[in-house]
Amino acid sequence: MKSTRAVAHSNIALVKYWGKREAVPGQPDDLNLPAVGSLSFTLDRLRSDTLVAPDPRDSFILNGEHHADAPKIFRHLDRIWRATGRAAPRPTTRVSSTNFLPTAAGLASSASGFAALTLAAAAAYGLDLPNKDLSVLARRGSGSAARSLWGGFVRQHRGGDGGDGCYAEPLFPQDHWDLRLLIVHTARGPKSISSTEGMQRCRATSPYYQPWLDTSEADLAAAEAAIAARDLSALGAVMERSCFKMHACMLASAPPILYWNGRTLDVIRAVWAAREAGLPGFVTSDAGPHVKVLTLADHAEPLAAQLRDVPGVFEVDVVAAGPDAHVEILA
Ligand code: ADE
């Protein structure tokens, strides 16, 4: 095996992924099939940089900290090794990764992390696959990782019930449209309930889960058309709707799931007030209390300045569209 390095950038879903399909009997139980497709914006600067190298034992070092036991990582290495079709046991492997992400931002580090790990391990083990198949492998590690293989705007397809057609692909490149995403931090510390647990509870108990599933493909088509036309109002409308449908679905679960805090709502209202006053921005929010605001490059700094003045806001990052992931063979 070779030593390799891969860098993949984080992404934010503009049309949300929320919900996993139940495993189909007879199929591997780790297909990790999303219940809906999704569409994301890849982030500049915010990235994972991952080295994969042969070593006498398996290890995972994240931001300089050793984790002797990292089952998700080692299972992902097994998955990638199995895809090579080799009968020999997988070579023991050291994975060393650094996340360049704002701390405690509730940003999915597993998206960029598993995208970088997939690319680096595939190259290290000599696995030469089409991008589509790499995206399927990345998705099996983490649901949103498949979208982090590319820059710009990326779509994860739901595909058929058996998993066919469930892959990600780039829609529009990094330079298609000069947008900014403002990441508005409204809390510190880890989130209260994991996304996987939240998704399961929604599927099992929320009366809004089925309507959430039923309306997703139309949102994806509308968002894709709005991005093609560089129409911020149209994209913003569908993006906010997708976000609020997802959170409504969570709120109607039993017991309810509420990721937001009071500042989350204050920021949403501040964005809407700025928009009314002629400074266009559109909100989205994930499984955490932070707010992400999509706007045009020219409006990013004035809008960020207003949001930094909302009481309780810790920080506002201004992030442009990011590039494709890349991999290099070191030795
Ligand atoms: N989870 C969080 N960050 C990660 C990384 N960089 N690689 C793999 N898994 C992760």
Notes on the structure:
The chain is α+β, with helices and mostly antiparallel strands and 331 residues long. The protein has two domains: 4-176, Ribosomal Protein S5, domain 2, CATH 3.30.230.10; 179-319, GHMP kinase, C-terminal domain (Alpha-Beta Plaits). The chain is 35% helix and 24% strand. It contains nine helices and twelve strands. It has helices spanning 71-83, 109-124, 131-141, 195-205, 209-214, 216-228, 232-251, 262-276, 297-308, and strands at 4-15, 38-54, 59-62, 65-67, 93-100, 153-156, 168-172, 179-185, 282-284, 291-296, 315-319, 326-329. The strands form two sheets. Strands 1, 2, 3, 4, 5, 6, 7 and 12 form an eight-stranded mixed β-sheet that branches. Helix 1 (71-83) crosses helix 2 (109-124). The longest helix has 20 residues, at 232-251. The N and C termini lie close together (9 Å). The structure holds adenine. Residues 48, 50, 62, 73, 97, 99, 109-110, 113-114, 117 line the site of adenine.
